[in-house]
UniProtKB/TrEMBL annotation:
Biased composition (Low complexity): 143-161
Organism expressing this protein natively: Mycena metata
Residue ranges with Basic and acidic residues bias: 80-94
Positions of the UniProt region annotated as Disordered: 1-20, 80-106, 140-161, 405-424
The protein's name in its UniProt record: Uncharacterized protein
DNA sequence: CAAGTCCCTTGAACCGTGAA
DNA sequence: TTCACGGTTCAAGGGACTTG
């Protein structure tokens, strides 16, 4: 419990708000400085009892951001009144502060050890916060289908004009950004902390969360947006992002390769009487790259030209994607043969299927290899002896990094591990 | 429409740093 | 030292698109 010191479902008997004076003034200042409406005078609210949901005529329920902010300001004013009324008898404040030091202000921040219900609530809160931030900063044009209609009708609708915008050149905790985050969190908190409110929309009623949780979720969204922004506006960031993306794509292609080969294992087993799944580690799969790992535009272009030429692309097809396949340098002939056998089983099964799948990206084999040191522990039959001698042997660091079992699994390497590798 | 292919978005995990 | 936080990297899941 923190900030508003409130737990959903706790009811009106819940203790006083636990805002520290600093937190409180901060929150208040943010609203005073950002809202379009002045704070209502305190005497506007005859009942200073905190968190008793104000009785609102349903017809007057907030419908747009401004209304919601007004409602929120009203609640804040109530909090202020409450705070003033009770600040003298807050003598155990120090005690409380100590207590709050040991307990985390978060409940749902970490997904670990959360129940199913908590995870679900966490997820919807993340959605809500993100949506709220999008609206506040004008990231989205509409959040409903009906909006598009009114867009064309009155293009200058005030609600689509962003009231605030993030400063992506700063971090999350820059005042300007924090202000937006706080406002969004306040709004969502007010709408969702009490399951009896009509604005309540969480999947489970008895799951607690804190204002700090909401802020954290908002920060995550901010960081994602900032990353995108940076990639769009900063060359080195763009390069990083591209690199990262291509790495991710390659990893995914390796995984897909593995997945496909796993599907052929059953038939391979009955045909060859041995289980090839021991070589199906994602990292040991063939690489499928669309460009070499370099920022040098000329090199990338040259590579692309090689591939298009090899794939005989021209005219309409000149821009089609092509990938080069890079076999792992470490693998023995036996290992690559197993992969080939698996792939041909897979291919045959595919052809036998009635439905024709979408055409796949062309793969070109120029006979090149990648020289990544394989992770995990390899079986000896998989490793080419020549490669081992040339690359690993005598290299202290690599000897530590590279690991291999001493025995082959049943059915492999029997035909002669060394003989196999001499050929390579 | 379903299935297959590709990959983007974004939540989660991880890592380094600076404050307490 | 631990803790919290910001930033970076990884990877699940879903969306876009194509084809029969």
């Amino acid at each position: 419990m923190d900030f508003y010191g409130h737990t959903p479902g706790a009811g009106p008997s819940n203790p006083q708000p636990q805002l520290t004076p600093q937190q409180y003034t901060m929150a208040l200042q943010m609203f005073q400085s950002t809202s379009h409406m002045p704070l209502a005078p305190p005497n506007y609210f005859p009942h200073p009892t905190p968190f008793t949901p104000p009785v609102i005529d349903p017809a007057l329920l907030p419908t747009n951001t401004d209304d919601r902010i007004t409602a929120l300001e009203r609640e804040l004013a109530e909090m202020k009144a409450e705070k003033n009324a009770t600040s003298h008898d807050q003598e155990p404040a120090s005690k409380r502060r100590k207590k709050s030091k040991t307990t985390s202000p978060y409940i749902l921040k970490d997904v670990k050890n959360l129940s199913k219900k908590q995870t679900a609530v966490r997820k919807s809160l993340m959605r809500l916060i993100k949506l709220e931030l999008s609206t506040l900063t004008g990231r989205i044009h509409s959040d409903s289908a009906s909006e598009s209609e009114s867009d064309s009708g009155s293009p200058s609708r005030p609600s689509v004009v962003p009231a605030m915008s993030f400063d992506f050149s700063s971090n999350v905790d820059a005042a300007q950004n924090l202000k937006i985050l706080t406002r969004a969190a306040d709004l969502i908190y007010q709408e969702q902390y009490d399951s009896t409110k009509t604005t309540f929309s969480l999947p489970h009623k008895n799951v607690s969360f804190t204002h700090a949780d909401l802020i954290e979720f908002g920060k995550t969204s901010f960081r994602n947006w900032k990353r995108v922004y940076k990639a769009e506006n900063d060359d080195t960031a763009a390069a990083n992002r591209r690199k990262q993306a291509s790495k991710g794509r390659q990893l995914m292609r390796r995984k897909e390769l593995k997945q496909g080969r796993l599907g052929a294992v059953k038939e391979y087993k009955s045909k060859y009487k041995r289980d090839p799944s021991c070589i199906l580690e994602t990292d040991w799969m063939t690489d499928e790259i669309s460009a070499p790992d370099t920022d040098n535009e000329n090199k990338r272009k040259a590579h692309r030209n090689l591939l298009t030429a090899a794939a005989k692309l021209d005219g309409d097809t000149i821009d089609d994607p092509v990938w080069e396949i890079l076999h792992p340098a470490f693998q023995s002939i036996e290992c690559s043969k197993i992969k080939r056998d698996l792939d041909s089983i897979k291919k045959k099964a595919k052809e036998e299927r009635k439905k024709r799948p979408r055409v796949t990206v062309r793969r070109i084999d120029l006979g090149n290899t990648h020289s990544r040191i394989p992770v995990g522990t390899l079986w000896p039959f998989m490793v080419g002896l020549d490669w081992y001698k040339a690359t690993i042997e005598g290299n202290r660091d690599l000897e530590d990094e590279f690991s291999m079992y001493t025995q082959n699994p049943k059915g492999f390497g029997d035909e002669g591990y060394s003989a196999d590798n001499e050929e390579e």
